[in-house]
Amino acid sequence: MDNQFGIGLSSAPYSGYLMEAKNIFKTYTTGASELKVLNGISLQIQKKEAICLLGSSGAGKSTLLQILGTLDRPSAGEVFFKGQDVFSMSDEDLASFRNNKMGFVFQFHHLIQEFSAVENVMLPALIAGVKRSEAKEKAVNWLKFMGLDGRAEHFPNQLSGGELQRVAIARALINDPEILFADEPTGNLDSENSLKIQQLFFELRQKLGITLVVVTHDLQFANLFPRIFKVKDGRFAQ
Predict the structure, then answer these.
(1) Running DSSP on this structure, what letter comes out for residue 217?
(2) What are the structural domains of the chain?
């Protein structure tokens, strides 16, 4: 199968799932020692679903999210996006695919300190080849959606923790991704801002029809999701 991200992408019969992971293993090797992080996980994700990966630190949930988000490659197993085997792509094609189809939010916002809020939000669009004027317009609109239209020219050190995370979410959404991955997105926030960000994720799902995959150890947050997968020792637990 050919597409704009690569030539001759391998594919499986399209199952109708937005994403499908099959028998995912991940092992890290350091010298003579091996650390097995994922042990044969399989998962299907429907379009517009909201899924939570719940587990304690070290359970493997963040590693699974990174593999689903193509930020890391599995030691074994396959990941399909609309039937396409994403790891059959070259690193360059995969980066382009990821930038256009996926958005990411992490516990720490990872904003560039020397850039204003609007410049941080614009960055993925500029990488995707969008004209600067169009990228800025989209970034301003996303910041307005986030309630930050008055903060567009502020720098990260001038923003509160909740505002920083909203800028990071706007940045994740500027290329209109089909799926949004979030790794402990409320883990660095106080209880008030944490609740606001939680509500925002479900508002995004309702208004945009975006698919959500969220990692958390917060049971209260997890219980908001229709589907919860408990990760323990690199496997799904009952």
Answers:
(1) S
(2) 50-59+92-237 (3.40.50.300)
Separation between Cα atoms, residue 62 and residue 14, nearest integer Å: 27
Give the DSSP per-residue string, 66-103.
Answer: HHHTTSS--SEEEEEETTEEGGGS-HHHHHHHHHHHEE
CA–CA separation, 45 and 134 (whole Å) = 32
Neighbouring CB atoms inside 10 A of 227's CB total 13
Report the SS3 class of residue 168. helix
218: nearest Cα among 183, 187, 196: 187
Distance (Å, whole) CA 63 – CA 109 = 18
> Rounded distance, CA 79 to CA 24, Å?
8
Neighbouring residues of 225: CB distance < 8 A, sequence distance ≥ 6: 50, 51, 52, 212, 214
Q: Residue 24 in contact with residue 234, Cβ under 8 Å?
A: no
| pLDDT, tens digit (0-9, with 9 covering 90-100), for 89-137 | 989 899 989 988 999 988 777 899 999 999 999 999 999 899 999 999 9
Query: pTM here?
Result: 0.85
Tell me the longest C-alpha to C-alpha distance in the chain.
54
At 45, the pLDDT band (50, 70, 90 cuts) reads: very high
